[in-house]
Amino acid sequence: MSTTITDPLLVAREGAVLTLTLNRPEKLNSLDITLLTSLAEAMKEAREDESVRAVVITGSGRGFSAGADLTEGGRESVRRRLSLRYTPIITAMREMEKPVIAAVNGVAAGAGMSLTLAADLRIAAESASFLLAFARIGLVPDAGATFMLPRLVGLGKAAELAMLAEQIPAAEALRIGLVNRVVPDAELATATAELADRLAKGPFSIGLIKRALNQSLSTDLHG
Length: 223
Hints:
four-stranded mixed β-sheet, 8 helices, about 220 residues, alpha/beta, globular
């Protein structure tokens, strides 16, 4: 997939690492139909391309993603958008047998936060923050958030984040296990590249480790 700097999704390849950059900075990378369609296609290609060994998803500008583009609310029902737009992305991120890293460069809100939860590892800039804002507008967290969040931070903390819809800074996200690492803003790109390169050069068993860990959430010790 070739892209230009004006495309809503930028796709870059460095060795075995594929980087996907949400590119609507004037809208805090809010997720419209065009961006979601491009992201689903890119995730599908990454999943199927054996030469891709690690995937990074990040945002351009000052935010990771503000979540769904609510200006498109009347064009598709919520159920249809979740089924057609979000489910293929989240499923590909969770099921591809290669590591997916979310490099959170700013605010990750709503469905944007859900994207970070679907990644295997999360590395955040010090200025990053996380917000499940759904309850503020009378909605239930979607795009897999209610499935993934309690598995990362526990049921009690997940309930707090989802019900109170309070924004938490990167340092707090690290403390509760929502992210794996926090680095200075200026070091995010380098730290992410180093982590992705390390994983991409690792053994193929990393993909099997991912599969085993994910399967452990729905089985017992005997399989």
